[in-house]
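Task: encode each sequence below as structure tokens.

Item 1
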Amino acid sequence: MTTIAANLQAVRNRIERAAQSAGRDPSAIALIAVSKTWPAACIAEAYACGQGAFGESYAQEALGKIMQLGDLPLAWHFIGPIQSNKTRAIAGHFQWVHSVARAKIAERLNDARPAGLPPLNVCIQVNVSGEAGKSGVQPGEQLALARAIAALPRLKLRGLMAVPEPTPDTRLQRQRFALLRELKDGLGAMGLALDTLSMGMSDDLESAILEGATMVRVGTAIFGQRQKN
């Protein structure tokens, strides 16, 4: 068994155990393999092991891999900060964008989404740990952005995403993930029906699943320590 295959199986086992601890169905939690900085060959290897969804943070790098792997039925998720001059490339080649934090970016993605494709699935990124300089809206700002996105016909608002500050404190991990879940529930109470909580990575996916994650984004635990971009 290759390293990627063994790592993928280990991550799937972690997801299953965490879901069982939470009394949840493991199939309700999607695994996004974060492949940024890793070559197309590694993605193809993961696909051969049954992994179909991949997360990328750098638009130019991702486009090359998307072209190389165009014969495979992969789902591409953009998970990094979005530069205005990359919105056309992202809107045209990804199925999901997890990191929308400004109405202007949402509008540009909407305008650039090709008419022949289904609406682009998007999540709003929330800065749940209050880090200076971290992408994402502040808690309390998500409603205005959610309403703006919901009005855009080429986008489909699916939920919320967070990248909390790393901490080994599982209590704090869960507290931050619980905040994101509560914000999503609050939007639901305002009439915005959302189905996605994109939260949890290699070091904290168990805490995220216990607090309701429906997508976990895992890179290091699958591919190893990240290569320099």
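Item 2
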Amino acid sequence: MTGALTISGLDCFYGEVQVLHGLNLDLRKGEVLCLLGRNGAGKTTTLKAIMGLVPARSGSIMLDGHDLTKLAVHEVPKAGVAYVPQGRRLFAEMTVAENIEIGLMTRNKGSQTRESVLELFPLLRDRLRQRSGTLSGGEQQMLAMARALCLEPEVLLLDEPTEGLMPSMIARIRETVTKLRARGVSTILVEQRVDAVLSVADRVSFIENGRNRETVGVGRLRKDPAFVQRYVGVG
């Protein structure tokens, strides 16, 4: 499996309103690609389109030679794509262990996968019997990522994972993303703030009005802040 994802000419609509306009994007094996752009630029819609939650009117989303746009929504995770939406969407009444179990069931993974995931999030091991709704925001974010990783995904989609978290938790999330890259997971990360991604991203795609305007290496971004000013404004 290459783990590489290629989006070509993607058009998506909400009703009659077009939100993605011929979007082109490529995610390389084992890289962290960040999507940056203003609110309403189409970043979250791009992730939802990959998951099939927003249908593609035209274009393709290729993973390992398979076009994800041809799959039913429930088949996309089974193809190896995991999604952690903004707001986390955990089963609040269920324990940490039960939420993890649901993740494991998606691709019939077992105790070896569970152990591997808990190694990434040792803090969750002490919380297995706790109801997930009683966890702190940072702990909930870790659980949402852990549940997604129970798929053993080739591609991980993270929508603003550090939003509203304390600096110590933000550091842990970034550290986890870096560890996943070392394991060969390819990640698309949506963030609002460029400072949140410079330490973890390999490349940054600037999304504006439903189009990928430019993709640059993070080194170039550090040298030339004008990119950020142009596409994101101050922030």
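Check on item 2: The CA atoms of residues 7 and 13 lie 16 Å apart. The radius of gyration is 17 Å.
End of task.
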